[in-house]
Amino acid sequence: MPSSKVLLVAGLLAVSASSAANARERVDFSFREDELATPAARELLLARIERTSVQSCDRASILATKAAKQYCADDLTEQFVNAIANDALSLLAESKARAAFRTARR
């Protein structure tokens, strides 16, 4: 039977400009070790982490801007990836987070 791990991330969800409006919320996330076994499985795991992060940040404040919610989701995603501490997953998340400034063409 595959083992399952649960990550508990207590993060400051920065979803508004005012620090008084920030909410401290514990966000739970669980995954199975076999979700780290292949590149395709890691892609799916990262997508699930991102989805969980976005949903959590969307619920945190109805007054937050779209940009603030995205910042919150990116930060929470990074916390989850760091807590899992898998090099391949970290590299995947890092490569997706980088913005492409130029595209090479032939």
Main sheet strand line-up:
1-2
How much of the sequence is in beta strands? 15-25%
Largest sheet: 2 strands, antiparallel
Structural class: alpha+beta
How does the overall form come out from the CA principal axes? flat
**What is the helix tally?**
3
Give the H and E element order.
EEHHH
Helix content: 40-55%
Q: Name the average pLDDT.
A: 79
Number of strands: 2
pLDDT < 50 runs, ≥5 residues: 10-22
The Cα radius of gyration reads 15 Å
Descriptive account of the structure:
With 106 residues, this protein is of the alpha+beta class. 49% of the residues lie in helices and 19% in strands. The chain starts with a strand and ends in a 9-residue tail after the last helix. The model is unreliable at 10-22 (pLDDT under 50).
Write the layout of secondary structure elements.
Blueprint: E1 4-13, E2 23-32, H1 39-60, H2 66-84, H3 87-97
Antiparallel strand pairs: 1-2
Helix pairs in contact: 1-2, 1-3
